Amino acid sequence: MMRFLFCFLLSISTSVTVIAADAVNFASHVSPILNKYCVGCHNADDSEGGLRLDDHAALMAGGETGLAVTAGAAGSSRMLLMITGKLDPAMPPDDEPGPNVDDIERIAAWIDQGAVGPDGDMPIKTTLRTPRIEPDQNTARPITSIAVAADGGLHAIARFASVQITRTDGTTVSQIDGLPGKVNSLQFSRDAKHILVASGVTGAYGRAALYRVDDGSLESELLGHRDVLYSAVFSPDGKWVATAGYDRVIKLWNRDTAAVTHELSGHNGAIYDLAFSHDSKVLVSASADATIKVWNVERGTRLDTLSQGEGEMLAVDFTVDGKYIVACGADNRLRVWRLASIDAAKINPLVVTRFVDESPLVGFAFTAGGKDVAVLSQSGNVKLLDTRSWKQVASLDPLPDTGTDIAYHAATHSMLIPMMNGEIVSRALPRRNKKNQSASETLQPIYMDLDALAVRNESDGKTLPRGAEVSGVISAAGEVDVYSWHANAGEVWAIDVDKLGNSPIDPIVSILDVDDQPVLRTRLHAVRESYFTFRGKDSKQSNDFRVFNWQDMNLGDYFYSSGEVSRLWKHPRGPDSGFDTYPGEGQRWTYFGTSGTTHALGEPGYVVRPLDAHQTPIANGLPVFDVYYENDDDPMRIAGNASRLLFTAPQDGTFKVRVTDTRGEGGEAFQYRLAVRAATPSFRPSITQLKGPIFKGTGREFIVRVDRIDGFDGPVTFTLTGLPKSIVSNSPIVLEAGQRSAAGTLWVPETISDDDAADWSGEVNIDVVATADILGRHVERSAGQLKKISLADGPNVIPSLHPLDHDVADDKTWVLQVRRGDTVSARVRLKRKSGFENEISFGKEDAGRNATQGVYVDNIGLNGLLILAGSNEREFFLTADPTSVPGRRSFFLNANTNGGVTSHPIIVEVLP
């Protein structure tokens, strides 16, 4: 090698003299050599040693060690000396191929000729110095893209370097040949007179071109990308064309002038797909960097980055109504965001995440009207989802080969899918019945009013009358007691098992059919997979559920793990916190009769949805769990470790109740009481007392709660009576359906009249009544009294709530509106007592008091909502989850001083 280099250096002068007869051009002679051997490590994104060789100006500027090229002096140019090995370190490295003698002579001649740069911009179209490999003539040419005109009358099919445009009967309209490489996207103009083709040469340049459909003639060419294009799209208004590809840059072109109006950068990976909003104001891009970015078209600015993806994002579009952004990719999931950022930067909230297949999702297409979307996976599976619920409704026949694209054909109500084997398959879509399952197919619950329970002992026999109470004993380890009774289809029975006295029994109860087989309660289909992170959970904890993929989960989702089903109640405050599960306080509730259990770190968990009785689960790669009628500990945690089970008879017949000890223990002391009774949905209300006197100018909080009995899940209204005239209260307080508690406040103005003061001369007690509608009946229960209420002066602070842009009187009940999925701002202000400058906290995840379920104080981190020492005001943010129920509800804040003093309540109105 050294002998060759020595000889070569001796011959440089004579060789250059020979070559010098012809001028060496940087663009056509030198740049291709550098691109082949050097640019991989010396480019705009990876300039090793600070040296770039992909641009003439950057090359002449040199790198960290100085100039690389000395114009007119090849023998003293560092770049040439390193290429020839005369100067260390030799380049390219020993394990990489380098330029041959002719290449080096050409570079040397160019330097000696003055290292002149290109005349104007470097040409976009460049030729790769790679060997040509001829394809096997017997190999089918893959179809890489497909497009259907808006009226369905024309199809465009792309193969390598060509596009064929055909009518629906298969006759050819035009043929476009001679394209530079693989065609990655096609799109017809709205009038179907033009077609936009995205292609290019990998590693060289990208090319978008506009062709006439009728004759395939080229109308305009859009060049400017430094690598192959993956997507080129028209704007709906016809003014713009957007292009993007491997070079990670989006270019917005004026369609009429073919001039670049904006260049959008920010992605850190190849850009695979683009889509315009229906009003052409917004552009979205899907990238290999696992993000979707949202751009303002007119200004060319970024509005938001949707970063929930966990793999390359391969396809993106807007729903037909233009309200949502939809994307899918290599993490096997389809995601939906509500479009909020149109004219200004704003968070576009994630609405839905759906696990669709066990392989990457490569594309999707909406049906006419946008009611359904078909999703194509790399495995060849095609799944159909309903865009109202985003639930999977059908699985189409799998493909015989890998699909490359998908398009909807309205005339045949089918999806057209091109494949790598050169064929196009059509998958007809099912015509779904929009009617709900008929009442005759749905088991309607029947609630009964039976005689008093018959009292039995275990020795009286194992057959029970309809409604009975039995005293028994598990007298030996492993013993199982079984009792039978008759039930009719739809009847709802409550099965209770309690220990008698100080019995050590921990009962577990289950329902069997006449053949001693467990009775199925429901089936739960997993729609999202997860696992416990950070640490496990005991069988009672209801907060800090840290789970993988938590960003893709929604409030109200059922979470299944190791046979237990819990429910998500409140979002984490960030990556260092976890979900609160229902009921949001105390011990966690369980659902579908399951029992609380301990969960280990890393234990699998799933978001699940119950299936209808006769519903066949659609394959999505995730399991289906059978849940039988069985319970160890009361799901509502009212009865401790006693068993509580609600049983709806699936048909007429004899059923059996099996009772034993959950640990398999037994003995004469293991006595129990079993009740088989008609379920009676009801509730038991309670209230907490005020934590001290009410300071004038502030309020005191109290909590209303209900114990829900026998499956009652409806709202409960608490009404206060006998209030002094000076008290402002948020009564009536509605405890929402499915909730355990709500918050009330009694607030008194800073100044009250003498007449109002007279109301406080004696002991003030306030009656609280709870009411609900249950099975068509109005049910009323006394919740007790708020007792011995008194007034006081001089609180440390007087908190008040105000709109963001103006002040209101401290005693005004104003309305703060927030739309579901949005975040709004307001202010909290303190009037401090002289000399009191302490920090004031309004709570952490529970900072917003009495808010609608799913409405919460946001962006507070782990420290909660604070006003720092010496400060008197701050902005806070209120977010309404997409699951929150529209309507009006009172809202206030509670400051942690003087035992807790509240602001005057305002109204938060959740808009649809």
Placed side by side, the strands forming the largest sheet appear as 36-35-34-37-33-38
Report the helical percentage: under 10%
Q: Biggest β-sheet, characterized?
A: 6 strands, antiparallel
DSSP, total strands: 63
CATH topology of the largest domain: Methylamine Dehydrogenase, Chain H
User: Measured on Cα atoms, how large is the radius of gyration?
Assistant: 36 Å
Helix count?
6
CATH superfamily of the largest domain: YVTN repeat-like/Quinoprotein amine dehydrogenase
The whole-number mean of residue pLDDT values reads 92
Strand content: 35-45%
Detail the poorly predicted runs.
1-20, 435-440
- CATH C-level category of the largest domain: Mainly Beta
Q: How many domain regions?
A: 6
The assigned structural class equals mainly beta
- The CATH architecture name of the largest domain reads 7 Propeller
Signal peptide: 1-20
WD repeats: 222-263, 264-305, 306-347
Domain Cytochrome C Planctomycete-type: 38-95
GO molecular function: electron transfer activity; heme binding
Topology:
Elements: H1 2-19, H2 26-37, H3 56-61, H4 78-83, H5 101-112, E1 145-148, E2 154-159, E3 162-167, E4 172-176, E5 185-188, E6 194-201, E7 205-212, E8 218-225, E9 229-234, E10 240-245, E11 250-254, E12 259-264, E13 271-276, E14 282-287, E15 292-296, E16 301-306, E17 313-318, E18 324-329, E19 333-338, E20 350-355, E21 361-366, E22 372-377, E23 382-386, E24 391-396, E25 407-409, E26 414-418, E27 424-428, E28 454-457, E29 468-473, E30 481-487, E31 492-499, E32 507-512, E33 520-531, E34 558-561, E35 564-570, E36 580-581, E37 604-610, E38 624-628, E39 630-631, E40 643-648, E41 653-661, E42 671-678, E43 682-687, E44 694-695, E45 699-709, E46 716-721, E47 728-729, E48 733-735, E49 741-747, H6 754-758, E50 764-774, E51 777-789, E52 791-792, E53 797-803, E54 815-819, E55 823-832, E56 840-841, E57 855-858, E58 866-867, E59 873-880, E60 887-891, E61 894-895, E62 901-902, E63 906-911
Parallel strand pairs: 28-29, 44-52, 54-63
Antiparallel strand pairs: 1-2, 2-3, 3-4, 5-6, 6-7, 7-8, 9-10, 10-11, 11-12, 13-14, 14-15, 15-16, 17-18, 18-19, 19-20, 21-22, 22-23, 23-24, 25-26, 26-27, 29-42, 30-41, 31-40, 31-42, 32-39, 32-41, 33-37, 33-38, 34-35, 34-37, 35-36, 43-45, 45-49, 46-48, 46-50, 47-49, 50-51, 53-55, 55-59, 56-58, ...
Organism: Rhodopirellula maiorica SM1
Keywords: Repeat, Signal, WD repeat
InterPro entries: Cyt_c-like_dom_sf (IPR036909), Cyt_c_Planctomycete-type (IPR011429), WD40/YVTN_repeat-like_dom_sf (IPR015943), WD40_repeat_CS (IPR019775), WD40_repeat_dom_sf (IPR036322), WD40_rpt (IPR001680)
